[in-house]
């Protein structure tokens, strides 16, 4: 039946077919449905949205919508994390190869039209960006890490954005969720109108700017005083693919962030809990989410209070118990009130 279902209903839990939607909705409303109701929609069993009633195998009971939502959110988070790791490895490789090139021929000027060009100094970076802007005719894709965008950052690229808007070039920008709280960004988007579309994620990769899917700019050091200009078709296409996958997973700036489904825990705190479970320090978590260390620690304190944890060690246990580490479906935070952590069996 599983193979038949995959052939007849090629979709996931995030986009149920019409028949599956009807049967699953009926099961949620009534608490269960006869097994015969699910025969035309094997996808519901394949996707674990329905499962046999242990008291009567002729009936099927639904997986709770909250558990399904949590499963989908965890899948999105895992896909974003995997994409970020791949891009981080690629950027590190670019820097290594660029360093070898500088050692080999430090006096030679970069060849015109070379596949990878090192731009050393803000003046050279700005000049190359201006040149790419003038040549751009169709589309600009950008990833802007960090938190709330500073006015200086927005002003620095405003002349290029206005020039692109004047030529009808479309722009798509990715930010962290924290950027939603910056009035400067909201003013910038209002000024640009329909020319710019913005979406946000918990985390994004390092800064990336793509012009017409032919040239890309990425940082070449931590303080961004050096950059790589990439024109190799395979490298640029790879970065475009990364951007498009992140874009598909991101949330439009005009849409609200999804509820976590866990009482007392915000979307940002859910992200912090997942990173804590991975063993990251406060400063690393703050940098990845685009918030200050102080703000990060305030959220961690609220997590501890909500989950009833008296120490960081106990907080880690609580995070695992409610499933915020991604290893099991989350349980309501209140279910742990007053409970002492118990060691796993075995």
UniProtKB/TrEMBL annotation:
CDD domains tied to this protein: LuxR_C_like (cd06170)
Domain HTH luxR-type: 258-323
A Pfam short name: GerE
SUPFAM superfamilies: C-terminal effector domain of the bipartite response regulators
Family annotation (PROSITE patterns): HTH_LUXR_2 (PS50043)
Gene3D superfamilies in the record: Winged helix-like DNA-binding domain superfamily/Winged helix DNA-binding domain
InterPro entries, A to Z: Sig_transdc_resp-reg_C-effctor, TrmB-like, Tscrpt_reg_LuxR_C, WH-like_DNA-bd_sf
Stretches for region Disordered: 324-346
Protein name: Helix-turn-helix transcriptional regulator
Organism: Streptomyces achromogenes
